[in-house]
Amino acid sequence: MTRRPFLLGLTGSIGMGKSTTAGFFRDFGVPVWDADAAVHRLYAPGAAAVAPIAAICPEAVSKSGVDRTALKAWIARDPSSLTRIEAIVHPLVAQDRARFIAEHADAPLVVLDIPLLFETGAETWLDAVLVVTAPPEVQRARVLARPGMTEGQFAGMLARQMPDAEKRARADHVIETRTLEQTRAEVHALVRKLGDADA
């Protein structure tokens, strides 16, 4: 029987500590696939998404690849364009993810960092889901500390994401990112629990 890695989805709302948590998994030798990084790769010059995006929105493509700011401006003008962009990008992201999993077929555990995990139905093909969370006041302080972030932008981001309470209710595992030390310890315990004997 062919053994495959345990696939753990990692998600959480903005400012909850997802990137830091993903970094701790990497520290413990766990392969981590990052959905946002995959999109950046696909938008790079000569990458797979560039020509199809150019065909539907020429002004969003230049020598430096796909301009995400231009795409956002197009979506703001024509909300239906999002469906056309997703029809191009989602299958390419899925291919990138499948390739990553295949490359790490011998790993006991693979983490898949997916910001809109529940929103896109990814929990249906994962073995388990980890949600990172933090108290609302901590989340707000973290996000507003980012350069250029405004209260309005933060409110808009929250409005587009599934509420934290609902994510936690649907998760198999939850880590509250109170301190770096505590978060790292909880990640280590989870890595051991899910079968990485080398951790």
Automatic annotation (TrEMBL):
<protein>
    <recommendedName>
        <fullName>Dephospho-CoA kinase</fullName>
        <ecNumber>2.7.1.24</ecNumber>
    </recommendedName>
</protein>
<dbReference type="GO" id="GO:0004140">
    <property type="term" value="F:dephospho-CoA kinase activity"/>
</dbReference>
<keyword id="KW-0173">Coenzyme A biosynthesis</keyword>
<comment type="similarity">
    <text>Belongs to the CoaE family.</text>
</comment>
<comment type="pathway">
    <text>Cofactor biosynthesis; coenzyme A biosynthesis; CoA from (R)-pantothenate: step 5/5.</text>
</comment>
<feature type="binding site">
    <location>
        <begin position="15"/>
        <end position="20"/>
    </location>
    <ligand>
        <name>ATP</name>
    </ligand>
</feature>
<keyword id="KW-0808">Transferase</keyword>
<dbReference type="GO" id="GO:0005737">
    <property type="term" value="C:cytoplasm"/>
</dbReference>
<dbReference type="GO" id="GO:0015937">
    <property type="term" value="P:coenzyme A biosynthetic process"/>
</dbReference>
<keyword id="KW-0067">ATP-binding</keyword>
<keyword id="KW-0963">Cytoplasm</keyword>
<dbReference type="InterPro" id="IPR001977">
    <property type="entry name" value="Depp_CoAkinase"/>
</dbReference>
<comment type="function">
    <text>Catalyzes the phosphorylation of the 3'-hydroxyl group of dephosphocoenzyme A to form coenzyme A.</text>
</comment>
<keyword id="KW-0418">Kinase</keyword>
<dbReference type="InterPro" id="IPR027417">
    <property type="entry name" value="P-loop_NTPase"/>
</dbReference>
<dbReference type="Pfam" id="PF01121">
    <property type="entry name" value="CoaE"/>
</dbReference>
<keyword id="KW-0547">Nucleotide-binding</keyword>
<dbReference type="GO" id="GO:0005524">
    <property type="term" value="F:ATP binding"/>
</dbReference>
